[in-house]
Amino acid sequence: MSDTENGKNGLTIALPKGRIFTTAMERLLEAGLLSKAISDKSRSLIHDDRKTGARVLILRNYDVPTYVERGAADLGIIGKDVLLEQRSGVYEPLDLRFAPCRLMVAAPDGVSWEDLSRKVNLRIATKFPVIAARYFEDHGLQVQTIYLYGNVEIAPATGVADAVVDLVVSGGTLLANGLTPIREIFSATARLIVNRASLKTKHGRVSEFISSMKKVCKPGKGTRK
What we know:
This protein has helices at residues 21-30, 64-69, 80-86, 113-118, 129-138, 172-176, 196-201, 203-215, and strands at 12-16, 46-48, 55-59, 75-79, 91-95, 101-108, 122-126, 143-147, 163-168, 179-188, 190-194. It is an alpha/beta fold.
């Protein structure tokens, strides 16, 4: 499809439902890259903006890097935590500086890192099995990682795991479920990612998109957890 047929910028942007979506939409509108707001609650998952020529794909969080890497989207916005977990082959030109969070090891109240280190057959529940396994391995510990899509915080209380590795903003959800953060693995924010082929074949438009997003990058408040 030519640039004329696809509108002004002819770029497809992948956005994740949930925590990142609202602020990402605000930044895209502020940068003039979209002309109207879109809700991630919409049943329609593909939206064309006739004024800017942009197309928006609304995806599940973990699918954003895949769509960008495979060229279904030219660009995407996603948390650094997902990029580190998936190790996708995308270009990451910009830290968007919103949706801050920390990936933490959390254990039941009164259980220390030393307690976990001494435990045989340590079980860790997490949405981030690759990162969790690598972190514990780097500290000389072999663990059984148990992948959970959601409700990670109740895994120790129900006997599914001894501890968890999960994203934390305020720590309120962990506290409510009898868990205490004991180790920080890393801090993360939302990132702009680009398909490597698009960076070459649509270099001018992609570069303009990145420059426009740079102008509106500023720290924002994340969803509290």
